[in-house]
Design goal:
Number of helices of chain A: 13
Shape of chain A: flat
CATH class of the largest domain in chain B: Mainly Alpha
Distance between the termini of chain A: 31 Å
Largest sheet of chain B: none
CATH topology of the largest domain in chain A: MetI-like fold
Strand content of chain B: under 5%
Radius of gyration of chain A: 24 Å
CATH class of the largest domain in chain A: Mainly Alpha
Oligomer: heterodimer
Number of domains of chain A: 2
Shape of chain B: flat
Structural class of chain A: mainly alpha
Helix content of chain A: over 70%
Number of helices of chain B: 14
CATH architecture of the largest domain in chain B: Orthogonal Bundle
Number of strands of chain B: 0
Order of helices and strands of chain B: HHHHHHHHHHHHHH
Number of strands of chain A: 0
CATH superfamily of the largest domain in chain B: MetI-like
Largest interface: A-B, 86 and 84 residues
CATH topology of the largest domain in chain B: MetI-like fold
Chain lengths: ~280, ~325
Amino acid sequence: MLRITLVRSSLLILRYVILGFLCIIVISPVMTAFLGSVRTTNEFLSRPFGFPEGAWNFEFYLDILRSNSFWRFMGNSLIITSFTMVLNVVLACMLAFAFSRLRFRGRTFAFNVLSFGLLFPLTVAILPIFIQIRQFGLIDSYWGVILPLVAFGLPQSTIILRSFFIAIPNELEDAAYVDGCTTFGFFRYILLPMARPAITAVAVIQIIGAWNEYFLPILVLNKDVYWPLPLGIMQFQGQFGTDWSRVMAYVTLLIIPAIIFYVFAEKYIVTGLTGGELKG
Amino acid sequence: MSLANTRNLSEVKVDEATQIRREKRNNAIRKWLTVGIFLLPGMLVFIVFVLSPIAQTAVYSFYDWDGLGPLTNYQEFKNYERLFEHSAFIKSVQNTLVIMVLSLVIQLPIALMIALLVARGQLPGRKFFRAMLFIPYVFSEVITAIIWLYVLHPKDGLVNTVFTSLVPGYQNVAWTSDPNVILYSVFAVLVWKYFGFYMILYMASIQGVPKDLEEAARMDGAGEIGVLRYVTIPLIGPTIRLTIYLSVLGAIQQFVIVQILTTGGGINNSGSVIGTYLYKYGLQRFKLGYGSSIAVVLFLFTFVFSILYQRFVMSRDYQDD
């Protein structure tokens, strides 16, 4: 009995050691970025890693936070992300409702056409999108980024929502109609509130995608007044070799909100990606 | 229907029949109106911004076109011929395939092992480990690439510093420019960014494996390896097949991380992948016709792979749909 307990606990300790080591590998690049940002450029050149010897230097952070451009990038990111998320969620909810609750000829076909979109992620289709956006005269417009992001997110969002909508029992729908509920009423007042966790999950996944998008804005937004945060890093271009500390301060400023968001949203990300299978 | 018919036959006057017919038609109109309201806005956005651009690419790929003015310079299949004769393209395809294969034989097994380590049995702090290991998923690709450019810095990046202190006589490696290692550096960064995603999928699936099946196997004298080999792994088969699919598609899609980490493909395209090739030779030089032919080749590959894989490998996992 004692032997079994010993074996068990030493196995557990082994697991902790391996997992701890993995966590260090995952986190150390991020820590390195942060530690790189709080030293002066001189100290950085002589001793690039470990904790700074002198006082921590937050000068780069203050510089960035005092600059107008940082807050403008932030504003642009907020505009692009919120519009993309809202439009995507609204349209995906409606599509998912049609594909799960309404009966009509051609339903399977339409759903297959939409699912077909999963095969063409934005990166792969970037060239045709760029041409299309230019034909619509949407270069240097937020819409040139928002609309393609919404469109390319629709297949995934719709598929996730549809699987949740299907799971809502038919009896509920019948009962609602017997009580005089219209199709729209059922959708708005019964289905949507019940699917709130799934909708949040879809919204969270869209927020992450839009907030992080780099390729599309770099092609569509030529003027830096429209740039979102990820493109802001380009203002340090050409300074890479010499001004890593400043770049790392900027990187850290982008990572902090991402981590805070992650702490609150992790549950929903996991729900969205695994179809609600993974419990805490 | 039958009710309406019987009534028609037995009692009723003609105008009542027309009224029923009209009612039916109104119902049909109302139904299609509802369907249209729910379906059209989303499908319209999807068709205008996903399907139609993709269909147009197929047309552009037969022209020499700088993106301005009308399509006049018809090329037949010349863009495609040039593409397959271009050594840089061949190299990019090879590199993409290397990343794809490495993802399948290294990244997925690592993710699976970690998932098994985190998800099974008693593990106080499970949620903490899951959250820590999954975190790179929320970082943008730009941030990821720039952090790693710094960590892999040829002179005093973290990786070189660590190796110098651990391995006697270690010579610094130029991780992001040396043509011999550049592709493996790219792969390592991709693993760091994405293994957590696969781990999460595996964990969800592992939790769905009935505990009593594993217990029964143990009762029959199976060791821990035997339980994994004959019970757990086969039961999460559908998820493994799904991750193989996602991983292959993911390898084809890489662009931002590779572009930044290798500064546009590296020396002699040593770190170039299909995505960076498309950017360099299609977009940057405004050879939109040529670029379109690259996009078409990509689409065809993805499409054929998806059809075949879903038809022959994943079909048994989705019998109910």
